[in-house]
Amino acid sequence: MVIVMNEQATEDQVEKVIAALTQKGYDAHRSTGTTRTVIGVVGASKSPLDPREFEIMPGVHEVVKITEPYKLAGRIFKPEDTIINIGDIAIGGRAIVLMAGPCAVESEKQLDIIAASVSRYGARLLRGGAFKPRTSPYAFQGLGEEGLKHLRKVGDRYGMAVITEVMDTSQIELVARYADILQVGARNMQNFTLLKDLGRIRKPVMLKRGLSATIQEWMLSAEYIMAGGNHDVMFCERGIRTFENFTRNTMDISAIPIIKKISHLPIIADPSHGTGLRDKVIPMARAAVAAGADGIMVEVHHEPEVALSDGPQSLYPEQFAEMMAQLRIIAPAIGRTV
Ligand code: PEP
Ligand code: MN
Predict the structure, then answer these.
(1) How many CB atoms lie under 10 A from the CB of residue 167?
(2) What atom in ligand 1 is closest to the CA of residue 273?
(3) Which atom of ligand 1 is nearest to the CA of 310?
(4) In angstroms, rounded to a whole number, what is the distance separating the alpha carbons of residues 18 and 41?
(5) CA nearest to 299, candidates 104, 71, 87, 43
(6) Which of 79, 234, 263, 274 is the most buried (most CB within 10 A)?
């Protein structure tokens, strides 16, 4: 259920509605928009809710029953787009945000070379895994805390914000100490313990789409984080598993306009994991921008032939520059900038 307040509703009237919900054992999530306040009702309680009790309360415009299983992540709860601010970077606004860096942090020097070039060409966020979810236990697992330190240091050196993956609940505190955005990897999209714990922190979370997740399952995973009180969540489409094997995954471009329609949260596109092949990354980045993505995340490596992970899908720095030049032409066609 969502309670929509009148445009003229007073603070006191909003608080009375929230108090009535709390008293009945429900969680009230408030969204204060430019014109009106909306209160999302979540949680299970023994006392059933009668919408009429709220409809007659002063300041209430209407009570909307939500039939979708997600509430806080949906547009009914919050009609305006959510903008997530990290310093002077706004994710979900008119400007499309670029996140770039290696798949895995291999050394400070490697990260420095890559960050120097991608920041020069316009990337605002530095990506790189310190804890790597590798398919094989014998593959490079990441540098751990040392990698996080490199990310922070190099990010600061080039004025970039930092995004990196958190694989487990036990790593949240450590990763949050160094990163500006915590990434939930595709393999962890339904790790509900991790999602609940990320709901309790106050740092933005980027939720990658699970390998075979439907959009509804993905929305419900965002709901898990938001239900804990952390509303700074963004999605990331990174391709799903299909029967097609020309590409590593099938990049679901249609997920972008679908998410933009049903949710107020930003969506980022990752054509590197979405295709797995360097020569497909730029075309799919172009498509993602045209489809309405709020950001693009790509893997970039100066020596992809010797990269410790995902070399075949990593762009050369010059390709990143070429991609940026193309995106700068496409974005204005849909009223955006890069
Ligand atoms: C990554 O971005 O480093 C990564 C491992 O991606 P995914 O979880 O989408 O496979
Ligand atoms: Mn990778």
Answers:
(1) 22
(2) 9
(3) 3
(4) 9
(5) 104
(6) 274
Q: Distance (Å, rounded) from C-alpha 289 to C-alpha 295?
A: 8
Report residue 71 as tokens.
Answer: 């509430």
Q: Confirm whether pTM is higher than 0.85.
A: yes
Q: Please report, as a single letter, which amino acid is at residue 244.
A: E
* Ligand approaching nearest to the C-alpha of 314: 2
Domains of the chain plus CATH, in order, are 2-64 (3.30.70.1140), 84-334 (3.20.20.70)
Q: Which amino acid is at 226?
A: M
φ, ψ for residue 210, nearest 5 deg: -60, 155
Q: Taking a C-beta distance cutoff of 8 angstroms, is the pair 82, 231 a contact?
A: yes
Atom of ligand 1 nearest to the CA of 297: 2
CA pair distance 227, 256, nearest whole angstrom? 23
pLDDT in tens, 176-227: 999 999 999 999 999 999 999 999 999 999 999 999 999 999 999 999 999 9
